[in-house]
Amino acid sequence: MLSAWLAPTVPPPAWKAALVTLAAIAVATGLRIVLLGLNGGIGVTQAFFPAMILVTLYAGWRWGCGPILAGTAFAWWVWGGSRGEALDDGEVATLVLFLLSSAITLGVVQWLRLALVNLAEARRLQTEAEVRLQVTQSAAGVGPWEWDVDKNELQLSPAARKNLGVPPEGPIDLNALLESVHPDDRAMLTSRIREAVRVGPRYEVEYRLAKHPGGERWIHGRGEVLRDERGRATRLLGVNFDVTKRRQAEESLRESEARFRSLADSAPALMWITGGDGQRVFVNAAYVEFAGVTYDEALVLDWRSRLHADDLPAILKAQISGEASRRPFSLEGRYLRADGEIRWLKSFSQPRYAPGQVFNGFIGIAFDVTDAKEAEAKLTGLNELLADRVQEALSERDAAQAALTQSQKLEAIGQLTGGVAHDFNNLLTVIIGALDVLQRNPADDARRERMLNAAQSAARRGEKLTQHLLAFARRQPLHPEICRIDTMIAESESLLRRAVGEGLELRLELKAGDRTTLTDSGQFEAALLNLVVNARDATPAGGALTVTSEGVDLITPKGDLPPGRYLRVAVSDTGAGMDAETLERAFEPFYTTKPVGKGTGLGLSQVYGFVRQSGGEVTIDSVVGEGTTVAMLLPVREAFTPIEVFTAQPPATRATSHVLLVEDDVEVGDLIEAMVCELGHMVSRAATADQALDITRADPTLGLVITDVMMPGGKSGVDLAVILAQERPELPILLSSGYTGQELVRAHETPWPLLRKPYALDALAQAMADAWDRRAGSRAAG
User: Fold this and answer.
1) What is the DSSP string of 445-487?
2) pLDDT digit string (tens) for 424-446?
């Protein structure tokens, strides 16, 4: 307190500094006069040193010069200045010595003042940091603790005591702490502590509390052992935090998975789940029994070996088309059962999505409809029976009709089961995502940022895979631009070399020059990478891969290519080559000669689909024992006009509006509501089209309706928009959907803008602006 008064951290105002300086000079002068009078001699200037020191500490060195000047003037006046006498040599020397001593003292005191100010500031910052740390730990539920091993003294922070349910004050030792632990976990906790002290350096454990006011509680403890120079443990520092909610969520997840498996295994139909790469990750008991193999063998079973030869081409074509479309699809064919009997199976596959609407495979179910098929065949022949067997034919027809009706019921159940399983998978995804967040330190902003970046990167990789497969199916439009092939290959060199690895040599022979083509650069790079990876897998260690580019001029047609100027990009390897059978089936989707788990058979199919969609052709030249060359021929396209690239600007901020959000998914609705509020608008919510109609009819202040296309209750978002257009034509409408079914086709045919899920905040703002602008344009036209 004294140092803070003598040397304040904030400089005092000038009037206060001047007042203190004058007072110090007056006191110094008064003491000199009272003690020694107005005579010369000793002590003329000594009294001004304390004044100079105090003033410098209080206001700084500039004000400290005041007592020095006052002391000099006072000495001159006493020694003869008042009488007009000149100073002698001794008096002059005394004044010079006084000034030098004062200057040195002033510098030392100024340094001391700065040290005191800095010390006070450091103490203040330390106090604030300790307060922030304590608030942060309390808010996050993190409780620091420290155990002195030698003294067996345990220091617990307030947050640590709260987590453990022990009194907030008072001493507590390790034995008392163990009394608060669940009896079944005490031995385990004691063993972990001893092990950490013995071998260290880290300690981590989870245990239950015996009695806690909030019921059963789980605590996660984590610490580190500190040792002396002899390696003996001296202290154990760490933190604890409450993980009860995470434990409860994990238990709920295990119960949900157990219920799902029990339900699936008890179903009489074949059920399975595939991942994003097309490989099965789950099959039920009926699936394993029908296949007659082990569970692990059923996961990788190639059903083409079980398909009837007459059904194989149609089933493969329908399967490839259905999986590429990312939409629900159905298959029906004859399969060989484990006992050797041919059975008709009708399957239904439903796409499933991970968080962020990233495609994550299919969930499917198949029913044995052999009886229904046989009944249908019998029903077809009933009309050819003789008249005297009409009654018998009618009976058989009724039985067949009943079997057919049952088959239709099973088909409906299959579609319903697929939808329910899809929704159930979404719930599991939300739980797993929440657990992943809770398992990490919620206060670690840097780690959370890294996780968000990783999730966004994974979502973009899923998007790129979707584009590749849809390009093969010719359902995904490309985004072509004028590109110089040699430049694109050169820019991809580092990626290609990483894909090839160190065991093979990669050569680039780029001779296309200035020739350009109209193509999608991302799809081209993916196609080239697929060819390089295939060549790498076919080439033994020590071999070489060569990527070449050159211009080719066709004088006559070649295959489906007309005469003209082309670019040829080829990948050659020195591998074993392809035999005639492999060469014939090379472009067949899902056909691969690689071991199980090493390839999907989609690489060359993707290349073929991309090149054909770009107006080109793919050729393969292979010699067994020498190697293979796969070449892409792309038509040359010249850029006659420069392409101007404009940077998209965010939509202008609009005045606050009242927005009605129609969304049946609560979690999605909460997110969209937060985004709309972030844009500065007010939000009302509705879960069905009927609720939305009630709100719009009662509230004239609404300025925009954002509705999902797929809605429960019998009315879709398109139906709602049609009704609102009749009742309130002035109200702007924005459609939104992540669905890809028939209703979305209908939405595209409407005059309202459609926002595809998932979307970011800027996309939402732009879509809302488009809806308002479109409505304003309609009014102007009207």
Assistant:
1) HHHHHHHHHHHHHHHHHHHHHHHHHHHHTT-S----EEEEHHH
2) 343 333 344 434 543 545 665 55
